[in-house]
Write a structure and sequence with these properties.
The chain is α+β, with helices and mostly antiparallel strands. A seven-stranded antiparallel β-sheet has the order 6-3-2-10-9-1-20, covered by helices on one side. A six-stranded antiparallel β-sheet has the order 7-8-13-14-18-19. It is globular. The structure holds 6-diazenyl-5-OXO-L-norleucine.
Amino acid sequence: DRPHRAAIASAHPLASAAGMQVLEDGGNAFDAAVAVSAALTVVAPYGAGLGGGGFWLLQRAEDRFETFVDGREKAPLAATADMYLDASGQPITKASRVGPLAAGVPGLPAGLVHIAETYGALPLSRSLEPAIRLARDGFPVWPRLRAGLVARRAILARSPAASETFLVDGTAPGLGDVIVQPRLAETLERIAAQGHDGFYRGAVAGALVEGARAAGGIWTLEDLETYQVVEREPIVATWRGTRALMAPPPSAGGVAMANIFQILSAYDLQRHSRVEQVHLVVEAMRRAFRDRALYLGDPDFVDVPVARLTHPFYAAGQRASIRLDRATPSDSLPGFKVVSGGGQTTHFSILDTAGNRVAGTQSLNSWFGCGYMEPTTGVMLNNEMDDFSVKPGVGNLYQLVGAQANAIAPGKRMLSSMSPTILESERGVAILGTPGGSRIISMVTLATLEWMNGADAETIVSLPRFHHQYLPDKLFHEPGAFGEEEAAALRALGHQLSEVSRLYGNMQVVTWDFKTGKVEAVSDFRGQGDAKVRVY
Ligand code: DON
């Protein structure tokens, strides 16, 4: 009962290769996760970085031990609930998105060190080696990176170090131009040599605090010195013979997905028409996202009623208001009134030949985070503070609303949608996740539902995507997701359809079929990925 080959799916072939190299050197999936995570900070700097955070869902084969490593950013100790509001109490939106004031205290370096030291078979320095080499020697600009550079050019141009690293005469470099990051290589080397303290104390910490403060931030040395990763118990839900291992708070993913599955469990979806299937899934999403807005936040700060929200009786109550012939207007559910209404992240999935599994999602929040690079360390800072609810009822970058549970407080983790997920049934295993802000949850949900129907990796990645997040009360969908008749039928049920301008997400899936033994790694055709399956 071991896979005959290892597989890694990530957003970039060089990151997948970094993981494969570590596996070939005798590392396990956890070492490979460190290598892939670190390599992604170099080759996908728009979506991941040492100045950001991440979640890693780990499952060890030998003893079935499973854990969720929470390397989410935290609000600085000087943060206050109203720090992004003006004197009249109105949100200053850019303040939580641009510049170091938008940056949470990074957790990604702590996560890498923790995983290597606790679960790895190789020293951290070995697992970081490919990333260090990529940062020092450089790598060619690829389409998704170029798209990010074009999108954020103006903001990067304000940060001298970021423009020196990523722009040529203030504009985005061409495809194939080589980007080198010598300072980032040095920072990675410090972490390789000194572990946690190489980033969170000493020269790197000092430079980051000084740089962030000089550019308008509020970080202190204490913020970095006190940062710790937290291991949390994953959320587990079993439905239709599939056991889903999912991300717990401060991710909203696991609670929302477990709730959606519970709501849907009373329907025999396959017996319904496609329109009814979409309708029911959307109604389940609407209700799960309402609860996200009301109840979810950092479990170290607020009492998140996980057991209640994922309980079958609770779902039965939610189901009572679902009608097959009509959409439920979001504002008819007790909850919120909206006051008002992208970005990039990156996911990878790993299976090694011992059967160990990792699903990892990491982020700077939107493209290149807050746009600021600290010059001496080459570290881009995140803008994850925008994932807090800046003001009750005011939508963030992803139009998500929130309340007290996700209000800003010193040292608190902002609620996330990142949903690294591992599925297992008699049929086999699927390891999956994607970037996409609030739509992460609906993408992983749809892929999971289809995997439960027997679909393979390629199919679940390629499904047309649709999304509902309670507020705004819209059924978002990719171009082409519904035929004309389906769209008309959904409108007739009362759904307000909203076609998004382009295909979204960049899902990375590894599957292992127990019966055929087949192991597959599939990267989203929407991204510029490379799924590597190699026999060794
Ligand atoms: O943690 C979150 O939910 C967000 N910061 C993720 C951002 C994201 O996926 C952007 N990708 N398109």
